[in-house]
Write a structure and sequence with these properties.
heterodimer, A: alpha+beta, five-stranded mixed beta barrel, 32% helix, disordered C terminus, B: 149 residues, mainly alpha, 0% strand, globular
Chain lengths: 385, 149
Amino acid sequence: MSRELEDALQTCLNLLQSGADIERCLALFPNLAEELQPLLRIANQIHSAAVTDVPQAAFIKTRSRLLNTAAEMRGEPKAKKVHLPFLGARTQPRQIPILASALAVLLVLILLAGTGLVRASSTSLPGDDLYPIKIGWEGLRINLTFDPQRRDSLEQEFENERYEELEELITENRLVEVDFKGQIISDVMGGWNVSGLTVVMTPDTHVEGFLAAGVNVRVRGVTQANGYILATEMRVLMEGGSNSTQENSGENESDEQNSGNSGTSSPGETESSQPFDQPTSTPSPDSNETGESFEIQGILTSREESIWTVNGKQIFVSSDAEIKGMVVTGAELRVKGAITSAGAWIAYEVEVRSAPTSPDGTSTPSGSGSGGDSSNPTPSPTEDH
Amino acid sequence: VYRYVRFRLNNETLAEDISADVFLQLLESARAGRSPQTNLKGWLLGTAAHMVSDHFRKKYRQPTDDLPKNLAAETPDLLTGMELEERNQLLRTGLAMLTDEQQHVLNLRFNNGFSLEETANLMNKNVNAIKQLQFRALAALNRNIGEMP
C-alpha cells in the first residue's frame, strides 16, 4: 500500500509539473485520493514558496570572498595589478623606474624591429605582455606632440581607448585589477554606472566623498566575469587646477596618481583626500555650488536621459537648460554651463550648431535655431525647440 | 546554492553568508586534496545542508532563541499578502521540524526543481529511496502543519 501511494504521489507530482490540477490527478487514483490530496497541496505550497531569484549581492559577496581567500591561499596579490595610466593622473615615484624601463625597452625594440611591435601591441589589453609597449608608445606620442589642439585630441583619443580596453576586458571575462576615472551617469542596483561601465560596490568598498549622478570619480576594482567591475575603492574627484601642472603640485595626491598629461578638454581634477564636507545632490544649474563656467563645442555622441556626451565629455542637461535647435545624436552642439565643486558639468544652454550629416552627404535640418522648450527635460530627436 | 540556503533560512543576509561559506569550504577542501571528484553539485548542496543544520543547532543551544518564533519574526519577503505570509511561515516552521534528510529532499525537489533521478544522484541514493523519502517528508510536513495552533 505504501509503495502504491509513493508511486501514485510521484505520478501526480509529474502531472502537476506538466500543468494538471490536483483534482485531475486525484481522479486517476480515487482509492488513494483522500491520502494524496493533502500531500499534493503541501507540495504545491512548497513549490509556490520556492526561491526563484538570486540577488546580485549574493553573487558579489560569494565571488569577493572566494577571490580574497584564493589570493590569501596563494600568498599573492588578490589579482594581477595592472595600473591604467589614465590621463590626468601622475606616476608615483616607485613606478617611474618601471615606466622608464618599459620606455627604454620600447625604444630599443623600436630601433630593432621598427614599428611592427608597436602595431602588434595596439590591440593589447591591461595584463598583456605587450600592454606596457602600447602605453609607452602613447606617452611618447603625447610628449612629442607640441600642437596643443592636436595634443588634446590625442589625449582624448587615448582616454577613450582606456574605456574600450575596460569594456573588452569585461567582454572577455578577464579578471584584472583596474584603475580608471569616469563620471557617474546613474545608480544601478548595487552600484553605479560610471561612464557606461557598471561598477558594483560591496560593504568592503572604500568610498571617499559623496557619490551622486554627475560626479567624477576614480574607481579601483577588479573586472568580473559577469560584465561589471567590482569596486574596491571609489573616490570622488574634486575640481582642482585647470591643467596638469596645477594638478601635479597638489598636496592631496594619492600615492598612485600617475602621468601628468591631463586632459585639457576638461578642467584638471584632483582626488579628494578627505570626504566631502558638503554632499552633492543631483546637480542642477541653479546650484550654488556652480563655480567655473565652461563652453564646449563638439559632436553629441550619446544622450542618456539627462546625461549628454559631447566630445567625449559627459554633461548633465537638466529640464531647466535652454535648448536652441533640434537636438539629435551626431549634431554639433555648443554647450554653455558651469562646473560644480564635485566635478559635474551642468549645462544651462545648449545650441545646435549644425545637424548631423546623413549617409548621402546631406544635412538634417537643425530646426529653428532658437526658442528652446525648457519645460521638456529630454527633447526627443524629432522635436523642434 | 543560494536558493537552497535561502529557502531553509528565510534570512537574505545569512543565506548570502552561508552560500559564500559553502564555496570557501570547497576551496579549503581542494587545498587539502579532499575536493569532490565526481558529484560537485551534490557536494555543494550537501555542504549547504550541513551548514544550515549547523546554524540551526547553534540557535537551539541559545535558550533565548526559540526557532519557530525566530523564524516567524524574520522578514517574510517571498510573498506578499497576509494570508500567504502566514501560510509561508507555517510552512517554514513545519519544514524546520523535519529531519535534515527530509528537508533536503523537499528543498531539492520542490524549491531547486531537481527531478527524482537528479535528486537521487545528488543524495547518492536510488530513485525508490527518494520516492519513499519524499513521501514521508510530505506526510510529516502535513502532520506538523496540522498540529500547529
